[in-house]
Amino acid sequence: MLNNRKHPKLYAGIADKGVEFFINRNDIWCFHAGKIYKGYENIPEHIIEMVRQDMLKHPEALKSLAEWENLSEDDYVRQYIYCRFGGMDEEPDIDKEGKINYTEYFDCGLRGKCKYEGRLCCTIKVDQGHLTKTELKVLKRITLLDKEIASELYVSIDTISSHLQSIRAKTGLANKVELAVFAHKKGLIE
Question: Which residues 6+ apart lie within 8 Å of 147 measured at CB?
Fold first, then answer.
């Protein structure tokens, strides 16, 4: 007789070439190629290089790292990993093909207070939960017309309307002007 219980999914890197970063005792660990790397300094260089290449694709994150007080140049990659990938979830941070994913919400303890929230990490904590990566993309374009946002994100205007409704519900803000002010305060738009 077959057991109908759901089997837990293995974390990336336990049984494949993917990578799952996570925070343990305030240090970065990861699973990769069937091994656990305990501590940032033990993570293989080829993984660190993939992260460096990803960093170059995110100027808002680089700007945040440059502005971060008391952060040395040696800490840039470490802080980037900590902020973007610190939680452990069932989606790989780097899949077995080397594609980097931004699917998780990680509460670093500074949520709602960090001035780099949404620029360095991929989500923002708000009154009713947190904004998704896609909602942040919409919020970063909030000063545009809905049809312009839809065009830039290659989605329908109805999809943008749905995202805006969700963002308003989560933030408690009533309209695009209030959302634009919020986005400016968070440093998402200039």
Answer: 157
The answer to whether the CB of 47 falls within 8 A of the CB of 30 is yes
The structural domain count of the chain equals: 2
The whole-model pTM stands at 0.76
In a domain, 133, yes or no: yes
Show which of 35, 57, 85 is a domain's final residue: 85
Cα–Cα distance list, 13 to 10, 17, 33, 43, 48 (Å): 8, 5, 5, 12, 15
Residues 108, 116: contact at Cβ < 8 Å?
A: no
The domain in which residue 176 lies consists of: 124-185
- 45 SS3 class: helix
pLDDT band at residue 119, thresholds of 50, 70 and 90? confident
168: CB partners within 8 A, 6+ apart: 174, 175, 179
Nearest Cα to Cα of residue 43 among 65, 28, 54, 56:
28
Report the run of H or E that residue 30 belongs to, with start and end: strand 27-32
Specify the amino acid at residue 119.
R
Please give the structure tokens belonging to residue 30: 């990861």
Does residue 11 contact residue 20 with C-beta atoms inside 8 Å? yes
d(CA 187, CA 136): 12
pLDDT of 45: 97
